[in-house]
Write a structure and sequence with these properties.
The protein is α+β, with helices and mostly antiparallel strands and about 80 residues long. It has 2 domains: about 1-50; about 50-80, no CATH class. It is built from 3 helices and 3 strands, in the order βββααα. A hairpin with a 1-residue loop joins strand 2 (about 10-20) and strand 3. The protein is flat.
Length: about 80
């Protein structure tokens, strides 16, 4: 189960439980944190580990770029 807290900076931190509390990052809004927490919990539920050693770094970067970063920056910034 995920929990969320608002930081002094105004950002939201999301954490999920997998034996221990695991911070999955900070987000501009609580809704963004909830969406990401749901995705991580789904991976955990389907027995995909968050720190999978079998995944290539290139795959992690591509997923992060296209699924997370692209929506938060302008197209010109993303292209650069």
């Amino acid at each position: 189960m995920a929990n969320f807290r608002k930081l002094n900076s105004g950002l939201w931190q999301a954490r999920v439980s997998k034996d221990v509390k695991l911070s999955i990052g900070t987000f501009c809004s609580k809704k963004e944190a909830q969406i990401e927490a749901n995705a991580v919990e789904e991976k955990i539920y389907y027995v995909h580990t968050v720190h999978d050693r079998e995944i290539l770094f290139e795959d992690v970067v591509q997923e992060w770029l296209y699924n997370h970063k692209k929506s938060s920056v302008k197209d010109s910034t993303f292209d650069n």
